[in-house]
Structure formats: structure tokens, C-alpha cells
Amino acid sequence: MKFFESPAPGTQIxxxxxxxxxxxxxxxxxxxxxxxxxxxxxxxxxxxxTLDGSFGEMTRPxxxxxxxxxxxxxxxxxxxxxxxxxKMSLGESVFFLTPRIDKGILYQVNKMLDxxxxxxxxxWLNQGLQLKPNxxxxxxxxxxxxxxxxxxxxxxxxxxxxxxxxxxxxxxRGELKIDGETVNAIYCYKRAIQLDEKAVYWCNLGLTLAxxxxxxxxxxxxxxxxxxxVNAIKxxxxxxxxxIGLGRILEPSAGKSVVPxxxxxxxxxxxxxxxxxxxxxxxxxxxxxxxxxxxxIALDKDETAIVANxxxxxxxxxxxxxxxxxxxxxxWAKTGFHTxxxxxxxxxxxxxxxxxxxxxxxxxxxxxxxxxxxxxGKLLExxxxxxxxxxxxxxxxxxxALTLVDNRFSEIWxxxxxxxxxxxxxxxNGENLNQSQCYARSLKLNPHNPFNSIPLRY
Length: 458
Known about the structure:
By secondary structure, the protein is α+β, with helices and mostly antiparallel strands. The protein is built from 18 helices and 21 strands.
């Protein structure tokens, strides 16, 4: 091992680093954290390397193995060299540049680095953010889940709002004990708001309250779901998820009417909220898909909505969502089904699709979507087609839908019954059923009005 003993490096090295901000693994024996090389600077005749990672910035003297020079730093991107954090005999820690013996891309972080950083809240927060719900990471010889990482961060400090917010996301319906106190998602989001009031925390609290109350009104003194969303909008009117969440609680359901909400002297209904969500997302941005879809579903057949001063019908909203995400079976099916007869087809990426072709496109993406089979059956009431060499008419499509979903939706049973004559029967899941039996199944699932009901979300 040797230290550099050369003048300050040429400007091309630091220019290279500023341009590329090289991402490398800091090697050793631990659990893989990547860092960015920020700069090389000289203190006297000795080079120092600055790295930037989850632990913040770290500057240490830079050593190299025999035969290497400072230009080798440029080769880190092609895996020909590696950086390690080592402790010298006098107790000084240094960055050590060596040739990479094996050509693997991932290297584990040095245990010493874990020991240095694991007393910081940011370290445990970063570890949790890197984990998916069912993943674990080995840190300092122990296994941690995402939730346990956040609990470890709270053991260091309970005054970081983002940690409470992330912990709340791991407790959608559960709870745990912290210092003898029962903690659930609602508690976590309220604590995050107390520490740092942000729109996203209010929105998460609103979503959780809506899920736990199942549409019931709050008791005296309880915070309403609607008020959570209004508070979020006051803090950040451009946060898409808040407008979508508010739209959902303003949609009429099960015959219940909903009073619009007053925001900035304007009464907002569900469709107004979804339109606003599209606007703040950017109508053609990937994030606008769910807003366009929600708006389309909320609109009645002949109803329109104004989005960014343009008027959109139900079908046009579905088409906008489809153009944002063309790999979504549900959007292909719904867009095709709601295309007006006078238009007859849609154009996506220069290709034209009829109403039936939209359903076939949906089935190539997801052949097990029962709603698509129901749509296709309704479109084939007076026609039939071949799918993969097999002949399908309306009746066969409805049977296929019921094979996938069976006893959940009355409308499909009604549709199947409509294809049968008084003396005809059809086999569904191994059982022969006549027209009256199909209608009876529909009546059992929806005793109010099975023949004209629309229990499926269109």
C-alpha cells in the first residue's frame, strides 16, 4: 500500500467526477450500500476522496495498491477497480483503491461502515426505504424487516416525521406497542403531522380513516376524512393523491347522496376532484392514468367533464387513460366498451381498434379478467367470433366470465339468462342451469332490481 505523492490531480479528473457523479459499491462484508464519488482533493501532498451516501458525506485519505494511480478512479464504472474503507494500524481510517479481482457488480458494504452509521436515524430510514414489504436485510449480523428498520430509527429519535409516516404505511390494519403505548397507522400519521405538517401526511391519514370507517360518519370530536383532504389541499393544491382521495369519498354509493365540499369558494363534486387530479398530474403524464380512469368511471354515460378548459366525455376519459398506459387490460376493455356506436373504433399509436378488437386486446394482456369477458359477451349479442381457433358467442363469453368470478355479480347471471330461451339450459361450472335458474342466481345476489342493476364498476 502507498499514498499518492503527486501534485494536485489535473482538472480532467474532477471534471469527470462532476459530470458523471460515479456510483460505486463500497466494498467489504455487510449488506450492499452504493455511494457516489463526489471529488478528489489534496491536503498538502496527500489526496483525499469524498464519498456521498446514506450516511452523508465522508472524506478520508485515499490509498492505492501497488501499480495503480489516480487515473484509475475513472475505471470504477466498468468494474475494474473497487473502493474499500480500511482502518490503518495507527487507528486512521482510509479509502483504499484496489483492482477488482472478481467482476461481480454488487459488493457488500463494510461492517465498519454499518457500525459508524447505525446510530443515525437517517441510516435506518434509508435501510427501510430500500426494503419491500416481504424482504429482510442483514445489518450488523441481525435480520431486519422494513418495519423493524423504522422502529430502530424511532429508538434513536421519535422526532422525525418521515419515520412515523413510513411506519404508518407498514400498519394498514395492524398495531404494535411502542414504549407501552398502542400504535396504529392513524397514530403514526397524526404524529407525523404534529412534527411536520405536510400534505402527504394529511392525505395518508385521510386514506386510512376512509378505509377504517367504511363510509361511517365520524363521532363527535373525531376528525373527518373530508377535513383531512381539505387540510392537505390547503398545504399543497398540486398533490394528485389528495384530489383522488377526496373524489372517492364524494362519489354517491348505495343510493346515498353526498354533499359537495367547498374549496376556495368553489363547490367540488367527485368529478371536479378527479378533473383537478388530472390537471395537477399533467394530462399526458404517467401519473394521470388513475385520475383519468376515476373520472371516467364517475361520469354517467352522457355526462361530460371539463379538464384544463377542454371537454371530455366518459369514453374520451377512458381513451386518455389508455394512451397513458397501453399495457392495461382493464383500460382496453372499458375504452372499447364505452366507445360510442357512431364512432365505432379508437386509434392508439396509429392503429385502429374496433369495440370488439379492444376486448380481444385486453384478453391478450389478461385472459382471466371476467369483466372483459362480460363486455365481450354484451358486444356479441348478435354476432360471434373465433378466439385461438375456438368459436365464441355471447352465451359462451358470459359462461367464461362466471367460470372466473362465479357468485359475485348479479349482472353477469342476468346477461346469461337473457341468452337462453324458456326451454334451454347451459352448463356453468359443471352444473346445468336453465333461464329461470340464472335469473334466480341474479335475484339472490341483488334482490332489489337484478335485471337493471349495474353492480359492476363501469
